[in-house]
Automatic annotation (TrEMBL):
Residues 26-209 form the Alanine racemase N-terminal domain. It comes from the Bacteria. GO terms for biological process: D-serine catabolic process. It holds the Pfam family Ala_racemase_N. GO terms for molecular function: D-serine ammonia-lyase activity. This is Alanine racemase N-terminal domain-containing protein. Transmembrane segments: none annotated. InterPro entries: Ala_racemase_N (IPR001608), D-amino_acid_metab_enzyme (IPR051466), PLP-binding_barrel (IPR029066).
Length: 403
């Protein structure tokens, strides 16, 4: 399914004719196309869902219920993982270390009751182990841990780092040292290893109007991946000699085909690719269908060639820049005002189609990233064809705002 903008606009107009904006929705037809394309790129390697990108239990459940290559969830906080476990979910891995002592004690209780099904906690240093021990004390069953291995690319003899500043565990020797420290502590056990190359998976290599920058990014990513693949394989083999690893996780929406080719990796991760925010328009290796959007009502007409929508200042995280802003998607031919951008209470829009819009019409926007959209709306309308087939709460709609 690849619909031209006019056909999409007609579908959305029919589906939401009786609904007043602002609202957010997921186009299920597009989401399933994206899911199939990601599975094809992962080449049979299971994909774990990144919950921070979805932030909606109902959408995650729909994907996991397909049972065609998706498994478990990579959560973003320990309280979130515990909440999901309360709902009966298993196979949960917390992607980031936790310093929440109360949640750690709750995890210890849950692990005692369900040693094999309790969430797995991320660690990358002895300090994490000390904090866990101090928070939970003696345990009835050891807490299950995952070791986070650095995937950043270092240039200039280690003076320049390209990639997220995550874990300090960079070498196979450091990974083995931490694995041995975990093995020496009776209150914890190492069951997984994770390594996320965000500078490859989360950075597009096809920047519109910037061929030189695009080539530079592609070269950097290729060189980084060649270095990482060898170093990561050595770390996995070394840690595997110390601990019985149940899973090795890596990757993201942007590099599933690379992770699929690494025999040492047992599973990939993806989340944003289901919604396909505009950040993922800039990749040469694949294409996705816009699936998650929000609608704003036109409420003013300041002058010829411009209309003003209500709200819209839903900026994505990261370094503050123009590419973090949402983009008007439908109807085509609209752009943000360069002086006002996407505003807290109003968003002026310029373009050739502005004069054709009436007060009360909806403009459909795409967010830059995926998960943060659901922090702005308490529900998502699920669309199939030209009909709303369900209305489901986001995390926010369930009264849960973890970050």
């Amino acid at each position: 399914m690849t619909l031209a903008p006019p056909a999409r606009l007609a579908r959305y107009g029919a589906a939401f004719a009786d609904l007043d904006a602002p609202f957010a929705f997921v186009d299920l037809d597009a989401l399933w196309v994206n899911a199939d394309r990601m599975l094809a790129r992962s080449a049979g390697k299971p994909i774990r869902l990144a919950s921070k990108s979805l932030r909606c239990r109902a959408v995650a459940a729909l994907i996991l219920e397909r049972d065609v290559g998706f498994r478990g969830q990579l959560t973003f906080t320990l309280p979130e993982a515990l909440w999901l476990a309360e709902q009966g979910l298993r196979d949960l891995v917390v992607a980031y270390p936790s310093a929440d002592r109360g949640a750690l004690r709750d995890l210890a209780r849950l692990t005692a009751a369900d040693p094999a099904g309790a969430p797995v906690l991320m660690v990358d240093c002895v300090e994490h182990l000390d904090l866990i021990a101090a928070a939970v004390g003696p345990v009835q069953a050891p807490l299950r841990l995952c070791l986070d291995f650095d995937a950043a690319y270092w240039l200039g003899g280690g003076r320049v780092r390209i990639g997220a500043k995550r874990t300090p565990v960079r070498t196979p020797e450091q990974a083995v040292a931490l694995a041995r420290e975990i093995a020496a502590r009776p209150g914890v056990t190492l069951v997984g290893l994770m390594s996320y190359e965000g500078h490859i998976a989360g950075v597009g290599d096809r920047i519109p109007g910037s061929p030189l920058k695009s080539r530079a990014i592609a070269r950097m990513q290729g060189a980084s991946y060649r270095e990482l693949r060898a170093r990561r394989a050595a770390a996995i083999a070394a840690v595997g000699a110390v601990a019985d690893l149940e899973f090795v996780n890596a990757g993201g929406t942007g590099d599933l085909e690379r992770v699929a080719a690494e025999s040492a990796i047992t599973e990939a991760t993806a989340g944003s690719g289901f919604y396909a925010p505009h950040l993922f328009d800039n990749y040469a290796a694949f294409a996705l269908e816009p699936a998650a959007m929000f609608a704003l009502p036109v409420v003013r007409r300041p002058g010829p060639g411009v209309v003003t929508a209500l709200g819209g200042g839903y900026l994505a995280s990261g370094v503050a820049a123009a590419d973090r802003a949402p983009r008007p998607y439908l109807p085509p031919g609209l752009a943000l005002d360069p002086q006002e951008g996407a505003g807290e209470v109003q968003t002026p829009l310029h373009g050739r189609t502005a004069d054709a819009l009436r007060i009360g019409d909806s403009v459909y926007f795409r967010h830059c990233k995926a998960g943060e959209l659901c922090e702005r709306f308490d529900r998502l309308y699920l669309l199939a064809g030209d009909r709303i087939v369900d209305e489901v709460p986001t995390y926010r709609g369930e009264g849960r705002t973890f970050l």
